[in-house]
Design a protein that fits this description.
With 507 residues, this protein is an alpha/beta fold. The chain has 23 helices and 10 strands. The strands form 3 sheets. Strands 7-6-8-5-9 form a 5-stranded mixed sheet. Strands 3-10-4 form a 3-stranded antiparallel sheet. Strand 1, helix 11 and strand 2 form a beta-alpha-beta unit. Helix 5 packs across helix 7. The two termini are 41 Å apart.
């Protein structure tokens, strides 16, 4: 409990920002869902067959996994708040539509007949009594919708839209239950408060309810889609989930602002590789740290799955191939990399490695029946991952897939005894794990380097001079130590990045 309070005190400013972002996204989505669902329900309610068909269609939307929906929309809408709102609107429409139609259907037929006998038009019926009588059911739909939207909005953090989900994702990544609880409890309380608040509006007329929600949304949204104020010279740098990307982007920021008059906006914990890559191509961000091996094996249309052609161990050739191919394919610039390689690795508990005399990946074949592997979904489906282990090493493993941070927690509990890892992970030290030698060279070099739009580089040539200060710098040991300071010692990525730049004389 004390840890939760202490963490909240440390993150109070970030929490307030995340809360505001969450409210902005949720209220805009709710208002948009109302604007779509209520008029549509009024329009189709007199035709039962059409109403049932459209309810079935909107009901199907509820079954689409939210991550899949976000992934489908990224190429169309890019990354950010607009994408998050659009996805949430799809989830918010069904309860409002269903309840509005039900409310209109439940009006006494005798009342309808009397209104018709008095010569009322359809519009007059709506204004005089239909909407008033249906309002309790519509409000009930709004309450269901707002709870669903606020809960689902935590996923907005995956696509750079911020919100309380950023606390949950960061907590999972750093195995910090206090951060997870702050995000989850805040989201739950928010949903309850808005549900009760909308219930309070039940006695109001529907148009008054709509106006109240519209005013609240306008106040909250404010500058969601307005351009950022400040310097005309501005670049947006994003980073993947985790301590290492956040350390690197803070280094980028300090080097750029130290070498030029360019203002840098940081978006840490922006999401997974695909989200950042699509955001970069769409111009939502300008730069993010990527790895040469990731470019070759994941981002290129003609992927480097067949790197075993003589240059898999040649880091220079892998970089050159990644640089040239990504420029040709997407007109992106991959600057020269740092020294360290954050390549894939397989790790086992040190005691297990000692007992079974395991030093290299080939040694696993002799204990294959004793292995329970915990791999990330990405590694499990990669050519330079589980597929390669089967083809190159002949290993047919019993695998459980899980989120990256959870595999360390699970191996620490003894549930699994083999995981995929990155060579600079701080958890390797924390959990006393032995990294096995990749003796058949399955994993290509993964050197970190800035990936950016060619337009950005052309507009701001000073970026290359600033970021090239990191080329050939940072060893694996230094990177792992910096990750450890953030993950295990609780230091801020900004402070760790600054200390390294000062210590090495780069600033």
């Amino acid at each position: 409990m004390m840890n939760l309070i202490t963490t909240f005190e440390d993150k109070k400013a970030q929490w307030f920002t995340a809360l505001l972002e969450h409210l902005q996204i949720s209220m805009l989505a709710l208002l948009s869902a109302m604007v779509i669902a209520i008029p549509l329900a009024i329009l189709i309610s007199r035709n039962k067959k059409l109403s049932e068909a459209i309810l079935q269609i909107t009901g199907v939307f509820q079954t689409i996994p939210s991550l899949a929906l976000l992934g489908l929309f990224i190429p169309i809408m890019g990354i950010g708040k607009l994408l998050a709102v659009a996805a949430l609107v799809i989830y918010g429409i069904f309860p409002i539509l269903q309840n509005t139609i039900t409310g209109l259907w439940e009006i006494d037929p005798a009342l309808e007949e009397a209104a018709t006998a008095f010569g009322m038009t359809r519009l007059e019926k709506l204004k005089k009594y239909q909407l008033s009588l249906a309002t309790p059911m519509i409000i009930s739909g709004l309450r269901t919708s707002v709870v669903m939207i606020i809960g689902t909005a935590t996923l907005a953090a995956l696509v750079g839209a911020g919100g309380l989900g950023s606390f949950i994702l960061l907590g999972i990544d750093r195995n910090n239950s206090a951060l997870i609880l702050i995000g989850a409890i805040s989201s739950a309380l928010l949903a309850v408060m808005f549900s009760l608040g909308i219930k309070f509006l039940e006695k109001q007329r529907l148009r008054h309810t709509f106006l109240i929600l519209a005013v609240i949304t306008a106040i909250l949204v404010g500058t969601v889609f307005s351009p950022m104020a400040g310097s005309d010279k501005k670049v947006v740098i994003a980073g993947k989930l985790g301590a290492e990307p956040e350390i690197l982007i803070n280094m980028y920021k300090e080097l750029i602002e130290n070498e030029s008059d360019i203002e840098v906006v940081l978006k840490p914990n922006f999401g997974k590789t695909t989200f950042l890559y699509e955001a970069l191509k769409a111009g939502e961000i300008d730069i993010y740290p990527e790895f040469t091996g990731t470019v070759v094996t994941s981002l290129l249309s003609e992927r480097g799955d067949n790197l075993h052609d003589g240059y898999i161990n040649d880091a220079g050739r892998v970089y050159e191939h990644a640089r040239d191919a990504i420029k040709k394919q997407d007109n992106l610039a991959l600057l020269e990399p740092m020294k360290y390689q954050n390549t894939y690795a397989l790790a086992v508990p040190a005691a297990f490695a000692k007992e079974k005399k395991l030093e290299k990946i080939s040694d696993l074949i002799k204990v294959e029946d004793e292995l329970q592997a915990g791999f990330t979904l990405e590694f499990n489906d990669r050519q330079d991952g589980r597929i390669g282990l089967e083809q190159l090493y002949g290993l047919n493993l019993n695998v459980k897939t899980m989120e990256p941070s959870l595999r360390y927690q699970t191996i620490g509990e003894g549930t699994i005894n083999l995981i995929d890892a990155y060579s600079t992970d701080s958890q390797l030290k924390k959990y006393n794990l032995t990294v096995l030698e990749d003796d058949k060279h399955l994993f290509p070099p993964y050197q970190g380097a800035p990936l950016m739009r060619q337009e950005t580089l052309k507009k701001y040539p000073a970026l290359k001079k600033a970021l090239d200060k990191l080329k050939g710098n940072i060893t694996e040991e230094e990177m792992q130590d910096m990750n450890y300071q953030v993950d295990m010692e609780g230091k801020s990525p900004k402070a760790v990045a600054h200390d390294y730049l000062v210590k090495t004389g780069l600033i």
